[in-house]
TrEMBL record:
Family of this protein: Belongs to the phosphofructokinase type A (PFKA) family. Mixed-substrate PFK group III subfamily.
Taxonomic lineage of the native organism: Bacteria, Bacillati, Bacillota, Clostridia, Lachnospirales
Compartments (UniProt record): Cytoplasm
Record: active site: 136 (proton acceptor)
Any Pfam family the entry gives: PFK
Main function: Catalyzes the phosphorylation of D-fructose 6-phosphate to fructose 1,6-bisphosphate by ATP, the first committing step of glycolysis.
Binding site for substrate: 134-136, 171, 178-180, 231, 281, 287-290
Record field: catalytic activity: beta-D-fructose 6-phosphate + ATP = beta-D-fructose 1,6-bisphosphate + ADP + H(+)
Gene Ontology terms describing biological process: canonical glycolysis; fructose 1,6-bisphosphate metabolic process; fructose 6-phosphate metabolic process
A GO molecular-function annotation: metal ion binding
Gene: pfkA
Name under which the protein is recorded: ATP-dependent 6-phosphofructokinase
Domain Phosphofructokinase, first and last residues per copy: 3-313
Cofactor entry: Mg(2+)
EC number: 2.7.1.11
Length: 366
């Protein structure tokens, strides 16, 4: 009997179920005697031995369902980084569950933090396979993550909806798109939605440059503007600070009542209104970007990734994350993936092409 453990970890996304179905379908095709153990709520299930023995029917009809049938949580990555006594207990608990259930391997569907934990378990001697999940597309070692294209579609739809109201009211609209450390989602949805200005963490902005881009549009007779801004967008000035210094600066400003904006889009919006009198509105689609059914692209990608994971199990190829490289399904060692972020290269051709289309990144000289 082949026993395979599976869990979904970190923030959810649209194509988790489709990916699990891919793994399961391929395993059931390959083996007569396979048992899939589904751990509940991510690594928590592995720590506290909360699991279900999955049946083939559990994976039926879930290709198009968002969320995750296993549940997810962000535990215990943050705690494990500290490596205090308590955390070591958790690592031991995970190893204990794995051994007690006599698992052949553990399949982890997760993003950055989750793959880091997967690598830690690999170092502890467990057979682990990662599957690249995140709407942020910021996982190192893969060109594409599942969930990303579905989120691009949703964020694009949000920009499309804002376009019509922005045009009717002659307003500047800021649409804040998810992505703290990387601007993939904002860049793609911004271009797909025809944004005039795109602000991403990888290209620090200058507020004067943004205002100059808005004025240029006004002069050209355009009476509304769309700004797609990533959650993690940062000004040139703030980009010079360390994370700690930036946190301190924001806390101080909030204490003095100078700045207490809920997010970067509100902060930039207020600066625009104060300096050039344009009417600004802010929209934050938020977790909508992770919800609903996966798009067709993700359904295909997830099915392929899942099947590839099953093939790796049959070959006992452990310690890798299944990946996409030049449109082919491939694999990257977990130790290479762990702890690294894949960000947008400011010199990539897509940035140049966007600039040729007249899109401002808020960094042009004024
Ligand atoms: O990692 C995916 C992501 O959706 C990010 O884009 C976003 O910043 C974050 O998760 C939100 O996390 P939470 O669900 O914990 O609010």
């Amino acid at each position: 009997m082949l026993r395979v453990g599976m869990l979904t970890s970190g923030g959810d996304c649209q194509s988790l179920n489709a990916t699990m179905r891919g793994v399961a379908k391929a395993l059931y095709q390959m083996y007569d005697d396979v048992e899939i153990i589904g751990f509940e709520d991510g690594y928590k299930g592995l720590i506290y031995m909360n699991y279900r023995i999955m049946q083939p029917e559990d994976f039926s009809g879930i290709l198009t369902e968002g969320g995750t049938i296993l549940g997810t949580s962000r535990q215990p990555f943050k705690l494990m980084r500290v490596h205090d006594e308590n955390d070591l207990d958790k690592v031991e608990a995970m190893k204990h569950t794995y051994r007690k259930l006599r698992l052949e391997c553990l399949v982890v569907l997760g993003g950055n933090g989750s793959q880091k934990t997967a690598n830690l378990l690999r170092e502890e001697g467990l057979n682990v396979i990662g599957l690249p999940k995140t709407i942020d597309n910021d996982l190192w070692g893969t060109d594409m993550t599942f969930g990303f294209q579905s989120a691009v579609d949703i964020a694009t739809n949000a920009i499309d909806c804002i376009h019509t109201t922005a045009a009717s009211h002659s307003r500047v609209f800021m649409i804040e798109i998810m992505g703290h450390g990387a601007g993939w989602l904002t860049l793609n949805a911004g271009m797909a939605g025809g944004a005039d200005i795109i602000l991403i963490p990888e290209i620090p902005y200058d507020i004067n440059s943004i205002i100059s881009a808005l004025k240029k549009r006004e002069k050209a007779g355009k009476d509304f503007s769309i700004i797609a801004v990533a959650e993690g967008a940062i000004s040139k000035e703030d980009a010079k600070l360390t994370k700690k210094e930036l946190k301190k600066k924001k806390e101080k400003a909030a204490k003095e009542g100078k700045m207490s904006y809920p997010s970067i889009a509100y902060e930039i919006g207020a600066q625009i209104e104060a300096s050039c009198g344009l009417e600004v509105r802010v929209t934050v689609p938020g977790h909508m970007q992770r919800g609903g059914a996966p798009c067709a692209y993700d359904r295909v990608l997830s099915s392929r990734l899942g099947a590839a994971a099953a093939k790796m199990i049959s070959r006992k190829e452990y310690g890798y994350m299944v990946a996409v490289k030049s449109r082919e399904i491939s694999k990257t060692p977990l130790e290479e993936v762990a702890g690294k972020l894949k960000t947008v290269d400011p010199n990539a051709s897509i940035i140049e092409e966007a600039r040729l289309l007249g899109i401002s990144f808020g960094d042009e000289p004024v």
